[in-house]
Amino acid sequence: MGFKENFLWGGATAANQCEGAWNVDGKGISVSDICTGGKFGQSKRITPVIEEGTFYPSHEAIQHYYRFKEDIALFAEMGFKCYRFSINWTRIFPNGDEKEPNEAGLKHYEEVIDECLKYGIEPLITISHYEVPFGLTKKCNAWVSREMIDYYLNYCRAIFTRYKGKVKYWLTFNEINSSAAPMGALLNQGILNELENPTIFMEQPDIPQQRYQGLHHMFLASALAVQMAHEIDPEYKVGNMMIYSASYPMTCNPDDVVLNQRYNRMYNYYCTDVQARGAYPAYADSLLKEIGVEIVKEPGDDEILKKGTIDFITFSYYMSSCQSSDPEQKSGEGNILGGVPNPYLEASDWGWQIDPKGLRYALNDLSDRYQLPLMVVENGLGAKDTVEEDGSINDDYRIEYLRKHIEQMKLAVEDGVDLMGYTPWGCIDLVSATTGEYAKRYGMIYVRRFDDGTGDFARLKKKSFYWYQNVIRTNGEKL
Ligand code: BGP
């Protein structure tokens, strides 16, 4: 027993967090481009008008747009079989509502794909990863509006036809269930109600009705994209992408257990139930009623959802948390979905609780529930790294984190889970999505770039680079 022979070992990035070149070759502004830098404990700001002299980390990011050949060569040196990256929607449709795609954008990703294929690396493409065109936010408040489905499908058609024969795996939306929480509204759905004044990222007024109506539109868009992909190329496999936020009842008090069930439904299952089973779950109505949401549907929507179920499930896994009915228990830090800290676990410097066993639990849970192939497309430790005088970076803590998670993946495979691959997050250092900082590093490749805007973007191999290379070489035998 062990990982399959063709297991997709690799790494993951997102365009807005690594490319830079934010206004080059016809690219439009995405929702990430209007977010300033921030740091742990100090939220980034959303500025609907780009401010002169303000630092926007996505504008230069790590210059992957210019250096992708060098980066992919490094991935190949590690032995990657797969590279998960996103196409920045605003390179293809700068404002989002154009009729014709931007050729320079299409050409760029063709080069990225060709570069991967040159090394036998399978591209795994996220169609929308926190890169909604800001033009569509201004036009119709993005996914709040049903017209987004057409804009998204135009975009899908352009890339599905252009990359036919070169790409096999697509993901419709990154962490779609981030919109079960307020934080997903802007990044995931392009929703911004205040278009005049800057807002603090974590303090936007939240309107659940918008988020859930937006999700309905995204479910339809995803289902139609699945059908379109299969029509354009029967070889295409289309997956969803969700955050799996492992969650435990804080105690065996039945109140905690019931609360935990509610948490799972709302955050872990709601979206994937629709995308994998093709229908809203039975609990949806009461859950939505409880939060004052009523979804507007059109005739035929149920049919669309039914016909467009995904081929495989992918998810990000970073941490777990607990649910407690005790009002004294305060929610801790987390990857968007939050929860009460678990006294049995330690946390990263950013307060994300490290729980490798939760990954085995997640894999089994999703496998039992949906009976579909699974892929872990994000996992990793955001940490501060130190470059020694001799240029080495001894990130043993990262190796430890990854090793323990891979061990648990292996156990899940032994449990019977059909696991396609593993692409740890930020295989190369990049900008953090939640805090907008460079200091929170995930990579096996260090990038010399800092939060004060200094640095020459040089790439350095960390100790984890060599460690992961050996993991891949031995198909996960040597950890
Ligand atoms: C996920 C996102 C990624 C990524 C990662 C790490 O939520 O899909 O874009 O950034 O989390 O989060 P952060 O960068 O905030 O540490």
From TrEMBL:
Organism field: [Ruminococcus] torques ATCC 27756
Write out the GO biological process terms: carbohydrate catabolic process
Q: Which family does it belong to?
A: Belongs to the glycosyl hydrolase 1 family.
* Entry keyword Hydrolase: yes
- The source's superkingdom equals Bacteria
Alphabetical GO CC annotations of the entry are: cytosol
Q: Sorted alphabetically, which InterPro entries does this protein's record hold? A: GH, GH_1_N_CS, Glyco_hydro_1
Q: Which Gene3D superfamilies match?
A: Glycosidases (3.20.20.80)
Single annotated GO MF: beta-glucosidase activity
Any one Pfam family match given in the protein's UniProt record, by short name: Glyco_hydro_1
| Key words, A-Z | Glycosidase, Hydrolase
PROSITE patterns the UniProt entry points to: GLYCOSYL_HYDROL_F1_2
Which protein, by its recorded name, is this? Glycosyl hydrolase, family 1
